[in-house]
Amino acid sequence: MAKKLINNPDDIVNELIEGFVLVNSSKVKRIGSSNAVARIDAPVKGKVGIVIGGGAGHEPLFLEYIGEGMADAEAHGQIFAAPSPDIVMEAVRAADGGRGVILLYNNYAGDVLNFGIAQEMAIEEGMQIETVLINDEISSAPLERMEDRRGTTSDHLIIKMAGAASAAGLDMNSLVTLLRKAIFNSRSLGVSLSACSLPQTGLSTFTLEEGKMEFGMGLHGEAGVKKVDLLNADETARTILDYLIADLPYKAGDEVIVVLNGYGSTTRMEMFIVARKIYSYLSEKKIIVYSLELGEFCTSQEMAGISITLMKIDDEIKRYYDAKAVSPYYIKI
Amino acid sequence: MKEKLGLKDFHNILAAISKTLTANRNYLCELDSVIGDGDHGITISSGFEKIVKTIEGKDFTSSADLLKAAGSSFMATVGGTTGPIFGYFLIEMGNKLKEISNGENVPVGIDEFSIMAGAAMEKIMKLGGARPGDKTMIDALYPAVNSLQQSVKEKISLGEAFSLMSAAALSGAQSTKELIAAKGRARYAGERAKGYQDAGATSLYLILNEFNIYVNNK
Q: Quick one: which H or E segment has residue B77?
């Protein structure tokens, strides 16, 4: 049984949103009593609204990525479960500044269903609305079925693109094209060292034997692609990078943004050790690191492990990446 | 024995479903924990508890409106895949009933129920993309709908038809033990999913079985 600092398990999501809004009261607001939140000045007139969201339990994903230069509103689901269409609609209405709304979320069955129903509702209300699905996780389906892949740890980069480009005044179509390019250029793969538990029950969602690690394990304990004896930091970094580089493929001379993400209980100490290998191995491959972001961007409770994301960049992506962003968790000035 | 279900009957059956799912909460979580994240029992029982709260003391003009309100309330509460799938099961039953009764509050016999369940199944298959054999709730619903359609042809009583429907749903749910999941998050479990009954299919059986119990007064 995992130990958690919670109250009534049924109140987890409501209470985490309450706390989130109190801590960030100058930056964000809750939409009524719903599980939707928005940046304090939403809707921002004259820009396309960016709505993000997904299941709870992966914080800072997604609610801590709303703000200036990031998303406008977020729909927070229950633990590991997509938000209902009603919550998504609250976020959509809060984000609608008159130039349309983009629903930007990870490709999971539950999210596609609920956001999809919300999109139909919004169309019935006469709104202009588009969907962009994030599907960067390379082990969840082979290359020829890329559209079936899950979304994972490139999320905050894609949200940043959407936030910066919508603030710069791009229209719906140009935004959708830009986001699809950024998503196509992004590939992620992780490795898990130990399981996460479900906060409502305290029980592990899976078990990983002593001395083993699993590549490609999902954020909710979805089985991975390869279970091996525990590798050291350098071997782990190289293994993940080999998979990623082959997938796009990333070539010598390519410039990339790297995300080194911790899933929850892997220490920064370990991540820094991994980071040095990422630099040296990419340098060997003559892939240029424009920026490496190290931190917990997308977590899965107390799961141990890391993921690496590579996003190939061009001038357009670079411009929006460098733009100002002020969200509770992610700040770029 | 009843041959037709009215507004009050649907109300009672929804309440009975809620009780049964709550009683089976831990069992459904257990089924889900092997290939899902182990919360199906919590999710579905809390959704039906919300339905009961929503419809309690409210006056509906027709069974169709009751079913639609119940499904919408479920979907708004639950989220995940369970929300839209089981929510639309009720909403679409209501929509179809409204359509075939021209908006009047008509009693529902085997003919109507069979058409309603068939429409709900079609809607869910379209929404989620699941087919029979994918290890989802469709594996219980599909044989149940077939059984209802057969009963309509054979012109048997509502009680007999519901008893057969329930048995078909149960054996359909049990058949998921042998399957590998092809939809949703469970598909990542691959071979690990074999040997375990699908939680959603089991819930769907429990839901349909309450119709059976109610009509046959078991």
A: helix B63-78
